[in-house]
Each structure stands twice: as C-alpha cells, then as structure tokens.
Amino acid sequence: MSDLRRSIPSVDALLADDRAVRWSASFGRDEVKRVLREVIADQRVRATSGRSVPDPTAILETTGVRLREQAVPGLRRVLNGTGVVLHTNLGRAPLASAALEALEPVAGGYSNLEFDLATGRRGSRYAHCSDLVRRLTGSEAALVVNNNAAAVSLVVNELALDREVIVSRGELVEIGGSFRIPEIIARSGGDLVEVGTTNRTRIEDYRRAIGPKTGLILKVHPSNYRIRGFVEDVSLAELTALSRREGVPVANDLGSGLLLSDLLPLPAEPGPKEAAAAGADVVTWSGDKLLGGPQAGIIHGSTEIVSRLRGNPLLRAFRVDKLTLAALEATMRLYTNPAAAAERIPAVAMLREPAGSVRARAEAGLAFCSSEVREALDIRPMHSVVGGGAYPEVTLESAGWCAVGRRPDSLESRCRAATPPLIGRIEDDLFCVDFRTIRPGEEKEVARVVSEAWEVP
Ligand SMILES: *Cc1c(COP(=O)(O)O)cnc(C)c1O
Questions:
Q1: Chain segment 327-339, per-residue pLDDT in tens
Q2: Which of 77, 97, 212, 226 has the most CB within a 10 Å radius?
Q3: Predicted structure pTM score
C-alpha cells in the first residue's frame, strides 16, 4: 500500500507538464496547483484502499476536467422552454437589443451618472429616466429605485413612519414567497390597518378607518390571484376623491405596470397612466415585469411627494445602479413609439406572437434534430402564461415539442444539465418544450440539446 502511495508524482513534477503550463497561463498557477493537490489527495485515498494505481496521466486529465468545470460561470444563459414569459426564477424579462447597446458604453467606461454636463457640476442619478417616466405616465415627477419592493417600502417609510397605512383585506398580497404587503409595511415603519373583508371592501370602510394617525391609503394590485363571486372593491378614483377630502395621500402599487394597454393581447387593466390620471399621489411598479426592462422600481406622482422620497435616507440603500438606468432608459424610449415597443422588446414580442407563428418555429426546429429524435417529438398545442405574478387567469395559445418514448424526468434532468441548460416542463407525463419562450434563433440550440439528451441511454 505505502509503495503505491509513494509512487504518486509530486505536484511540482506535474506542474512542469505541458498541459499544466498551458492551464497555468489561463487559470493561474496557484489555482492549477490547488486543483492538482485536490486530485492527488483523491488518488491517494483510492490507492490506500487498493482501488487504483496512481497515474500521472489520469491525474492530469481529471485536473483538466475540474479546471474547465470550475470556469463555467455560475450565472449563465438558459433556454426557457417553460412557456412562462416573465419567469422570475429565470431572470424575468430578457432585455431589448437597444437596452444591451445602451449598457455597454456606460458599463465599460465612465458616464455622467451624477454629473451635470450642462453646468459641469454635480448632478443627480435620479434625473436619468425621470423625463421619460413623466412623459409616458403623464405624472409631475418620477424616481427610479432598485425594484418595486424597494419602491413600496420607501413610499410607506416616507409617508407613514409610525403612522397608519390603510389597506383593503382583499389586497394583502404575497408575491413570490418573500414579498408580503403586511410585512413590508411593518418593516417600513407603518402600522397596517386592514379594512373591509377578503371579498368586499367599500369606500365607507376606508372613510371610517381614517383618523388622526392615518399616514397613507395604499391600493395594491392583486397581481397573482383573483377573487371571484360576491365581490366589491373601491376604484382608485373613489379613493383619491376621499383622500382629497380627508387630506390623506393615496399610493397605488401596480405590480406589473402595463404601460400601453393595447400593446398586449391581455384584458385591459388600469396602468401607470390611468393611475396617475385618477389622481394617485404616488404610483409604483416593476421595470422587469410587463415593461420588459431591467429589474427596477418605478415611482411617479406629485412633485411634492417625489421630492420627499428623494430626501429619504433609505433611498441610498435602494439606489438604482448605472447599468439599470442605462437599460431602463433605452427600454422606455422604445415605448415612445408603440410599434417599436411591440417588435423590439422581447417580452412584449413573445406575449404578442400568434400561436401559429410559435407552432411554425417549433416545426422548423425539428429539422435540426436527428431523424430518430424527430420521430419521437410530437408538436402539440400548449398554453403559455404571462408570469411575474401578472394575469394569473390568462393563458396564451401556444405550441411546442412533447417527447414521446423517454422517461420525462430523466430527459428533463439531462436537458437541464446541458450547455446551455434547457428548462422545459413535464405535462401529461411527457417532457415538453413550449416554443413561445424559445427566442427566434434559439431553435437550433434547443434541437441539439434535446438530441444529445436523447442519445444518453
Ligand atoms: C411583483 C410585485 C411587487 C414586487 O416587485 P419587484 O419588482 O419584484 O420587487 C410588489 N407589488 C406587487 C403588487 C407586485 O406584483
């Protein structure tokens, strides 16, 4: 045994090997040394138990594999075959080319992030995007923060610190497990006052709840659920009329914020513009939901309230990054021309794509598969969903591949382990790939991943 262990070559001898020299140049000598030591330690254990004879070639090969595995980025692109367009776990909205182009120079160089080019003095990062948000929503003033959760928290903290926040019991939303309206209000320093019932809330309920300690009335879009049947809720216009009489501000958390209501084949809902027109003092929504931009929290409303928000110390903790501002400005600019928004914002284009066109792409993708795989793939109608907690009851007619003749779970896990990973879904005990969320141009890659996964016995 000890002879075998002694026959393991030294790290220094292995480092002198041609391959190790090449790896050192790309990964760094210390890193190669560290992995060699790891592999040698494994070999030593195997040699001790008499399972194998240490061999320099095997050590070097294993080291090469490990170094390459470690070099794969942790965060990477995946192919979304789930049919969920704004998939929060898959990064929500893919950015438009215009947004990517705007990112690059700002990310790779210096920028006027907080520098006023007109005066040569210090400027404000919050000036960027503000004009566009104001123009697109018809609001007096605007502010962008890190995400919508931060936006809601900032609004509550500024307008209702140690004061009461009135919310309908029908609107106490939980989004994605960690964002819960009651908890956000409490952590932001407000005291939640629930009014009405789960299914019915009337203006009278709000009126009775208003008192000397009231700081804010908060109306929350129910996003990911709907209450059906014997229901009644209070419109934003009624609330703003009440708030004027009582002198209490109204905030409207829209969640998704559909900027142009006729842009998407979805039931019309009041969006940011309508909320501003109805007189909400402040409106908040996400940049990476139906807008199709980067993660951001968009805030707009009266000049008085937005300037108060700008002075809140928490804003520093919620402040938006220059990369976000660059991507958001470019995305928003597309909305000034609805035809451009429809075509060039990927999330919008995906939601608009007719089922026939999705089906045609699924069919075209088959051509890239091996004939055996092609035989086993059925093109079937499917239903995509919006995702991002928006329009929970809407399904979009779609189409895609269903794999017949392979266990769905093993096919699913092999596709998930591929490069790039393909995330599909299992439906009717078949592994399925919904082509609505496979981007035009990705069909060939999807075909390769599925074909390779198929060949593994
Ligand atoms: C999604 C959502 C949020 C949270 O927005 P993020 O941008 O994910 O922080 C808050 N409120 C509502 C109603 C939402 O739908």
A1: 999 999 999 999 9
A2: 77
A3: 0.93
